[in-house]
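Input record, target 12 of the design panel.
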């Protein structure tokens, strides 16, 4: 293999998306500080990455069972990345409830998840939802379609939902470890600019 390898790092993607969103300062004012605080805390809580080849879009539509084998298709976003993000992203885009997340983690780890495993998983699941919400906002800047407006609303809802449970739980865990001293800012609603 020659040349540089591709590495997907969700926290770097936030920087790229923020540059795009900065072109519309009215839309992002008041939210960017909140998003950047969250992103920084999530990156800190995500722990040491397990770098390997990742799919980065593990959703049900990308699995095909032909009766003999299970095929994983649509490697458009595939490359090197953090395996924990792949797992957290799968739970986020699939809308898993906590019991399904517990089964996913136990299967992935081939054993019961530890407190540290849950902290890492919660951080990267929230990061996946934040990425989806920011991506929807970027898409809305370029496509004045009802589908992008709907995507922004859906992504924002999933982000708010993940911030209510896993992110607050994560902050509680970090606070109890003495790592975070600030209070969680109020959850802000992402409003659509497309009419």
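The sequence produced for target 12 reads:
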């Amino acid at each position: 293999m020659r040349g540089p390898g591709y590495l997907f790092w969700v926290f770097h993607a936030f920087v790229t998306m923020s540059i795009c969103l900065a072109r519309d300062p009215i839309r992002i004012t008041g939210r960017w500080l909140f998003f950047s605080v969250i992103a920084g805390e999530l990156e800190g809580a995500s722990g040491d990455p397990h770098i390997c080849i990742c799919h980065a879009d593990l959703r049900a539509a990308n699995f095909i069972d032909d009766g003999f084998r299970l095929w994983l298709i649509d490697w458009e976003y595939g490359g090197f990345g953090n395996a924990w993000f792949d797992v957290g992203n799968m739970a986020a885009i699939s809308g898993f409830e906590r019991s399904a997340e517990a089964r996913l983690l136990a299967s992935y780890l081939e054993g019961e998840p530890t407190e540290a495993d849950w902290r890492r998983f919660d951080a990267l699941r929230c990061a996946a939802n934040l990425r989806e919400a920011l991506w929807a906002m970027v898409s809305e800047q370029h496509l004045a379609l009802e589908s992008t407006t709907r995507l922004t609303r859906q992504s924002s809802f999933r982000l708010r939902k993940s911030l209510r449970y896993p992110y607050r739980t994560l902050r509680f865990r970090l606070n109890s470890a003495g790592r975070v001293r600030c209070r969680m800012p109020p959850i802000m609603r992402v409003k659509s600019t497309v009419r």
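The CA atoms of residues 66 and 72 lie 11 Å apart.
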